[in-house]
Structures are given as structure tokens and as C-alpha cells.
Amino acid sequence: MDRLDSLRTFIAVADKGSFTEAARSLNVSGTAATRAVSSLEAALGVTLFMRTTRSVRLTEEGAAYLERCRAALADLDDAAEMLRGRTSEPRGTLVVTAPVVFGRLHILPVVTQLLARFPALDVRLMLIDRVVRLAEEGIDVAVRIADLSDSALHALRVAEVRRVLTASPDYLAKHGEPRSATELHEHVLISFDQLAGANSEWRFGATGKPAIRIAPRLTVNSADAAIAAARAGLGIVRTLSYQVAEDIAAGRLKPVLVDLEPPPVPVNLVFQGSRRSSPNVRTFLDTAKLHFAKGID
């Protein structure tokens, strides 16, 4: 194998956690995959993987090298696509990440359309409620639901969502419904930590005032868990509107302090500027724009 093939083999082994599975995905023999990585290690003078009879895992040097390899090969693939022309159809693997609930409701339908239209395209959809680093984790497009700070990433704004407070009818029947932001201090609060803010504050109104410091009885890092706790009658939860739309429609949750909703939050598709010419990324962005033009909750 040449150096580029060795790098692709290295990445495949890291992704699969197995030489056998990596070889199968690359349509080469297991021996060829093992030799490619061994040759790469010899050329670099470092060990990239710790190998046992039961597992294959990256060394610290291997993990650092993997990040650079992903970025370098992505740039080379983009250059090849530009030479083939902007009319090239999507092919190979597109990697997309999104928050769990938003991805299930709004990104999976976009992916389904793409897979139906382009038989040579594969998609790896990572649904996770944390911010991932695109280059380091091999991500082509990420959904960010937030006001973006300045960065080297490009962003396409496709929608906006609201921050809402909800509680179960049973909870409100027992504890009453708050009529002002300050009355929240008298209630049991559930915090989804991505929406709590750096100072554990909830802001209200068009200007973000008043702002109250919250003291939640339950803090979770999963929107699904926070919503489930609210449905069970534990307390009042702040989420994004799309996350509780089904529960509100079904009567399992009821909005509170609707008149004090803060400004909506933008939904952005972010990507590295060098990836915009990729047919995979370009087609995903175009398809997503059409999907979100219909509006979301």
C-alpha cells in the first residue's frame, strides 16, 4: 500500500476498533491492513495502537495523529472533488452530528432523503447532546443550536427555536402555576445543563431581563431525561420548543410563563470552509435548507 492507503487503513482501524473489521470495510485482507499500519508505525517511529488478543485501542500518540490525518485526507478528498467538477454526485461517507431529539425529528428526515436519492452515498449520523470538534472528530456538518461565537467555521442559519418552561398538569395542580419569574424560586426546578448558562441563570423577556439564579433539584446532561422527569411530575423544566412539542400536544406537559419567553435561539449548520465544495456537504446543506423552509416547532 502507498502512504495514503496506509493512512486510510489507520483511520479505519481506529474507527472500527478492529483490524478485521477495518479490512472488511476497505475490501482488503486482514494481513494487508495489519502490514499497512505496521509500516506506518515504522515510518513514524511511534506505536499508534495498543494491541491485545481482545482489543485494539489508540495510544496517546495515535489519537493525536488521527485528528491530523482526518483533516488532511478530508482536504485531499475535497481537492479531488473540485477537479471532478461541482456537478459530481455525492458518494462515500458523510458524517453529521446533531443533538439527540433535534437529530431524530429534523436531521434524520434529511438523511433519509439523501440516501434515497444517492445510492453511492453513506451517512454516519451521530446524535449526541454535546458540542463536538469538527476536524478532530471527522465531522462534515454539525447542528449547533446557539448564538455562535466568532470562529473559523462557516455557518448556515436554517431555523430558530424557542426556550420554553413546562411542567406536568399534576405538578401544577399540587404546587400552583408561577405567575412571575421570581416565583420560580418557590418551585422545584429541573435543569438541562446546556440551557442553564455559565452562571446557572435563566433569562426572560425580549431583553433577557429579568435573569434569575436557579437552584435546581435535578440537573442532567440529557434533554430526554430532563423532560421525562418533568412528565413524571418532579418539577418545572426549561427546554427548547421542539423537544417538548409532542408532550404539549398530548397534554403531558403544560407551558408556563409563556409571556416571558426570551428571544429565540438560531439553528445553524456549521462546517469547515474547505468542505463547502464537497458534493456531500453541498447537497446536504441544500436539502436541509428545503426541509427547514417548511418551518419547525
Description of the molecule:
The chain has 297 residues and is an alpha/beta fold. The longest helix is centred in the N-terminal third of the chain and has 25 residues. Strands 4-3-5-14-6 form a five-stranded mixed beta sheet, covered by helices on one side. The chain has eleven helices and 14 strands. α1 packs across α3 and α1 crosses α4.
Tally of DSSP helical segments = 11
Give the helix proportion (percent range): 40-55%
Any guess at the CATH architecture of the largest domain?
3-Layer(aba) Sandwich
- Count of the separate structural domains: 3
Order of helices and strands: HHHEEHEHEHEEEHEHEEEHEHEEH
What separation lies between the terminal Cα atoms?
Answer: 51 Å
- What summary fits the major beta sheet? 5 strands, mixed
CA radius of gyration is 23 Å
Oligomer: single chain
- Give the C-level CATH assignment of the largest domain: Alpha Beta
CATH superfamily of the largest domain: Periplasmic binding protein-like II
Helix/strand/pairing category: alpha/beta
Strand order of the largest sheet: 4-3-5-14-6
CATH level-3 fold name of the largest domain: D-Maltodextrin-Binding Protein, domain 2
User: Which stretches of 5+ consecutive residues score pLDDT under 50?
Assistant: none
Shape call: elongated
Mean pLDDT: 86
Query: What is the number of beta strands?
Result: 14
